[in-house]
Structure formats: C-alpha cells, structure tokens
Amino acid sequence: MKIDIFKIGSAILTRFNPTPDQIELAKARLEICSTCPSLRGKATEESGQCKLCGCFVKSKAFTPQKNQCPDGKWSLPEDKYIKYKQKKTLI
Ligand code: SF4
Fold first, then answer.
1. Alpha-carbon distance 73 to 18, whole Å?
2. pLDDT per position as a tens digit, 6-53
3. CA separation for the pair 40, 57 (Å, rounded)
4. For ligand 1, atom 4, which residue shows the shortest CA distance?
C-alpha cells in the first residue's frame, strides 16, 4: 500500500476548514462508505477504515481530489460537487 502524504495532508486540511460544498460532499461519500462491505467499523467514527486502501474514511471523505475511492463508488457525488478539471491540459 502506497502512502501519499500530500493527499492525506490535503484531506486533513480540508476537513478542518471545509467549504459548504466540501461538507456536503464528505457527507455523501460517508453515506456510501457506511453501506460498503469494504468498510471496517463505522464511517462516522474516527476508527472507520477502508479495507481496500487502509484510509480512515472520516478524514478521507474530505479529500478535494476525485476518484480516491479504490472501488470507484464516490464518482456520483464527486461529479455533482467537484467541477474543476483534474488533469492539466493546454486549454
Ligand atoms: S472508500 Fe470506497 S471502497 Fe473504501 S469503504 Fe468507502 S466506499 Fe468502500
């Protein structure tokens, strides 16, 4: 399992100073995690952990980046709340 300190740090920073949209996105992601068989524990508790990536989902849910669920389950709420481009292009 690869640990990306930048991604972890950006999720933690966002969690402690979120915009209203980031709060709504985190709630939507945690609702998905709460019904996911890959979740160990409860999504609403600090110890709730994804068995696929090893992340603690209560903080990871605030990541400002798309496609961070290893099972691709967060794409629906991310499409609604994250509008900016994820890849650099010329335009
Ligand atoms: S991050 Fe994705 S795979 Fe992991 S518990 Fe949440 S919904 Fe499931």
1. 22
2. 888 999 999 999 999 999 999 999 999 999 999 999 999 999 999 999
3. 10
4. 50
pTM, to two decimals: 0.87
Question: Would you give the DSSP letter of residue 69?
Answer: S
Is the CB of 71 within 6 Å of ligand 1? yes
Tokens of 18: 């979120």
79 lines ligand 1 (CB under 6 A): no
What is the distance between the alpha carbons of residues 32 and 80, in angstroms, rounded to a whole number? Answer: 15
Spell out the long-range contacts of 64-71 with Cβ–Cβ below 8 A and sequence spacing 24 or more: 64/10, 64/11, 64/14, 64/22, 65/7, 65/10, 68/7, 69/29, 69/32, 70/38, 71/36, 71/38
